Amino acid sequence: MTNPITQSVDSGTERKLGRLLAFGVLATLLASTCCVLPLVLVLVGITGAWMVHLQALAPVTPYAIALAVGALAWAGWLVFRPQRFCTLADGSCATTRPLMRRVFVACAVFAALLLGFPLIAPLFY
Predict the structure, then answer these.
(1) Over 60: is that where the pLDDT of 95 sits?
(2) Which of 68, 76, 85, 108 pairs with 19 at a CA distance of 20 to 30 A?
(3) Quick check: 83 and 96 in contact, CB under 8 A?
(4) Which of 32, 113, 102 is closest to 67 using CA atoms?
């Protein structure tokens, strides 16, 4: 039998983790708007002189990178830390859910690719 307090703590932590992952990915997309977004838009077929204005977001990039790394670090800490409450005698609930770990790793790899793109972008053009 599970404890309702444990369930509410787990669901609250899971919601917080999902929000942090989404925030980290959105901050990463914002940080890469000057480099990756125009390339993606051209590959999709959207062109125009208005894309020059995306360069105006370049001064915001370091702050967006800091927000993305901070949010992903906090989410990683929530994913990989042991749970506080465990109602089962064998301690099997002390490990975090494998699905959330996979989602976190996928988001972290995606963010690393986007943030690392400016380093390899000169190889493409």
Answers:
(1) no
(2) 85
(3) yes
(4) 32
